Amino acid sequence: MLEPKQIKEASIRIKNFVKNTPIFHSSLLDEFLGGHEIHFKMDNFQKMGAFKIRGAMHTVLRLIENGKKPTSIVAYSSGNHAQGCSYTGKVLGIPTTIIMPSFTSPIKVQATRGYGANVILTETRMEAESLSEEYAAKGATLITPYSLDDVILGQGTACYESLEALGEVSAIFTSIGGGGLISGTYLAKELLCPSAKVFGVEPAAADDAKRSLESGVIFKWESSPETISDGARTLCVSPNTFEYIKKIDGIYTSTDEATIYWTQWLTHLLKATVEPTSAMCMQGVVEYLRSCTTKQKILVVISGGNVAASTHSKIWANNQLDVIPSIAT
Amino acid sequence: MLEPKQIKEASIRIKNFVKNTPIFHSSLLDEFLGGHEIHFKMDNFQKMGAFKIRGAMHTVLRLIENGKKPTSIVAYSSGNHAQGCSYTGKVLGIPTTIIMPSFTSPIKVQATRGYGANVILTETRMEAESLSEEYAAKGATLITPYSLDDVILGQGTACYESLEALGEVSAIFTSIGGGGLISGTYLAKELLCPSAKVFGVEPAAADDAKRSLESGVIFKWESSPETISDGARTLCVSPNTFEYIKKIDGIYTSTDEATIYWTQWLTHLLKATVEPTSAMCMQGVVEYLRSCTTKQKILVVISGGNVAASTHSKIWANNQLDVIPSIAT
Q1: If both were cysteines, with which of A274, B5, B13, B147 could B238 make a disulfide (CB 3.0 to 4.6 Å apart)?
Q2: Is pTM, for the whole model, over 0.90?
Q3: How far is A24 from chain B (nearest CA, A)?
Q4: B112 to chain A, minimum CA–CA distance in Å?
């Protein structure tokens, strides 16, 4: 396992290349949740709209530092990791090929191309993975979305910056896709606030990390599970992220209905575009708070804000957000 | 008319009570618009989610400064001004009654009550106006939404803060409802950047300021015009805001279709919840840029982010945002 102090080094390494995004909170939300403090790390305002730039940029900067600047980059991704790699390649002047499953939202494809990458679409995620390995065999540097140590360290800088700004917190919530974000988050809190609990949140229909944790063996979907939280449609966590996931304090799940509810409310309360994959963390926060007997100071990592128009349509189709609910009980 | 230097005094007066909201820009948008710089003053992140707190707070602080602290406050408003007055009353410890037309979005009613005001709903805006005058006759201090000098000065602080941060700009765009925001904006730019042009934008279906400007006489709707830009459903500008409107450089209009288009794009590019009333400014920006032969540095005041769920549903019903358009020509 990585050492927590390496997160600080990663933060120094990338700080001129990524934004130290702001931390928001909503006094209305705090009040409705019973007087706890909920702080949101707004990485939806990150360059390219998501935390993924952190891991991709950190990986390539580390290679350059070690005298191994890639001649080309390849990555497979259904979205934000693709944009993170594409943006990294553009900023550092390295030709980049991104292989994406064809269900990727068109706006993410367009943005990935907009940052200069060559984009190839494949039918399934598994085909994307195997094609990217072919590119790597021919000399391209493959940046996988969550299993590389340098990706994990980069992703952890979001939590590191948050704890530097907020001081101690009682609990931290992030979504779990492949596990890179929560692994880095675990390391960051071990460095700056070891007493903080760390919780992951998964879509109820894509709860492979929870199943893996319960059985002790990594559970893998045969095909990408269906959920509005498109950033969490990964087939499984990786062996190394699973090691960090075993150390966190628990995994909550959120139905798509609950996720849509929280996406609506965060859109309204934070005045921000928040991916369902991020908003679903609130379902975990509320379930956790119901079990608490003391006032909590919570950090929620808002991982991104790249939302397809079709997803916006689904979020607002039922038009629920008409009165502020009582969610304290 | 007010003197431009009074805007600076207003800014000092309110600065401990309102946020100096951030200025955002989108490099993708700048590129798609042909290399101009477009800067957005994000008053959707203002306390209570809109610029209206500025004018309301400034008006009451000025009264207190002059030894005339109100014993109670009354206001009529279909939305953000109501929340501005309610929040002002709460912060300054003054009982507040808000009279709202019943078409007001439920979430704005709820938020207004949430800040502690007594809320009364009436059938029409005109009934709301006359009932508020009854309260005023009984001793309450009536804060009208746009015609008071101190409201105009407060609203102008958004532009004042923007120009302090950005330096010189070539043109400034704000929406026009009753005209308070654009009047204060005109004063702010006269103080800090007299060479800047100022443009207003109205919904095509609620273009009373444009009609007034063309005829030289204030045009008044018989009832609130229908448009998705609910912050611009005012019946007419006031005699004093009309004097400032005569001095600006022009008024553009936006159809609801164009407004929805720009609301979608700003949601995506700025990762922010933006009222259609604010987003419609982009229609004016694009029309203006088409007439420009040199690179422009533009300021757009994003006036608020309080959007009802039913409005979100309308914005995303047609699911347009699938590829980034070429909007340079």
Answers
A1: B147
A2: yes
A3: 10
A4: 12
